[in-house]
């Protein structure tokens, strides 16, 4: 009989991470969930998950979590690096400290956690690392420079990691969600308006705020369950794909990016924020 796999899902207090955790529990995995707002993971605990308080930018939280999982369950077999947020605002208006923090959460935090789970995966010569990137890891939007920089970086980082880990039987999977109905839109618009709402980029910021509200608040995005189903499929696959683009607008926008020149793609993007 196959050993019951142990999963760790970050950013499970909301949105995509919460749905991934539910799906992996349904699939019969032992599931640990992590986020800063532990109280928002009580529903997952009642479904059988173990909740861990983790700020992904804090090494102590990461070390403690991996230690607990190792002691209780032997180690992490499936790591879902999902915690993240969009720090929007014009480049000119965004402090370098805020930009650094965006990288701490969306890239360095998950890198530190990945380093901690790798020895166990290497030793057992198997494991799956799923990095939740974004269609924004390939495309780009105005006022999203730092967010897109982290996701473009995550794509390249994940490709390199895949090459390094293949020899140990460890899979690295990139998931590129489209627009998904979660707290993402609310988390991004407030700080964006604070930074750029009243600057030279104010008109652009207001248009983007409206577009984001239309996408997320009117439920035009996809349900986070589409990402959860994809992660479940990748975990079960003997040879998962390297990339999965899923959810509202992901495939058409990635296709357009592939097809169009930079200038034409610029025009297509800017036509949506006029
Ligand atoms: P939500 O805002 O609903 O969830 C974000 C999760 O990340 C929360 O559980 C939050 O937990 C966690 N998080 C944020 N900051 C930290 C931190 N410093 N330490 C630990 N956890 C943190 O958004 P989504 O579910 O949409 O986002 C999940 C991932 O999906 C992100 O990486 C995002 O970039 C990506 N994505 C989302 C898209 C969308 O349209 N929704 C599109 C493309 C990609 P807490 O605050 O409790 O710590």
Helix content: 40-55%
| CATH H-level superfamily | NAD(P)-binding Rossmann-like Domain
Q: How many E strands?
A: 7
Structural class comes to: alpha/beta
Number of helices: 10
Instruction: Report low-confidence residues grouped into runs of 5 or more.
Output: none
Task: Compute the CA-based radius of gyration.
Answer: 19 Å
Sheet with most strands: strand arrangement: 3-2-1-4-5-6-7
CATH topology: Rossmann fold
Report the span from N to C terminus. 58 Å
- What is the number of independent domains? 1
Share of β-strand residues: 5-15%
Order of helices and strands: EHEHEHEHEHEHHHEHH
Tell me the overall shape. Answer: globular
Q: What's the mean pLDDT score? A: 97
Cofactors, ions, other ligands = NADPH dihydro-nicotinamide-adenine-dinucleotide phosphate
Task: Walk me through this protein's architecture.
The protein has 274 residues and is of the alpha/beta class. The protein has one domain (6-273): NAD(P)-binding Rossmann-like Domain (Rossmann fold, 3-Layer(aba) Sandwich). The protein is built from ten helices and seven strands. It has helices at 15-26, 42-46, 59-73, 96-124, 145-165, 184-196, 202-216, 225-236, 250-259, 262-271; strands spanning 6-10, 30-35, 50-53, 78-81, 127-132, 170-177, 243-246. The chain has a seven-stranded parallel sheet, with helices on both faces. Helix 1 (15-26) links the parallel strand 1 and strand 2 (30-35). Helix 1 crosses helix 8 (225-236). It is globular and about 55 Å long. The termini are far apart. The protein binds NADPH dihydro-nicotinamide-adenine-dinucleotide phosphate (NDP). NADPH dihydro-nicotinamide-adenine-dinucleotide phosphate (NDP) binds at residues 10-17, 35-37, 40, 54-57, 82-85, 105, 132, 134, 177, 179-180, 182-184, 187, 221. NADPH dihydro-nicotinamide-adenine-dinucleotide phosphate binds next to helix 1 and helix 6.
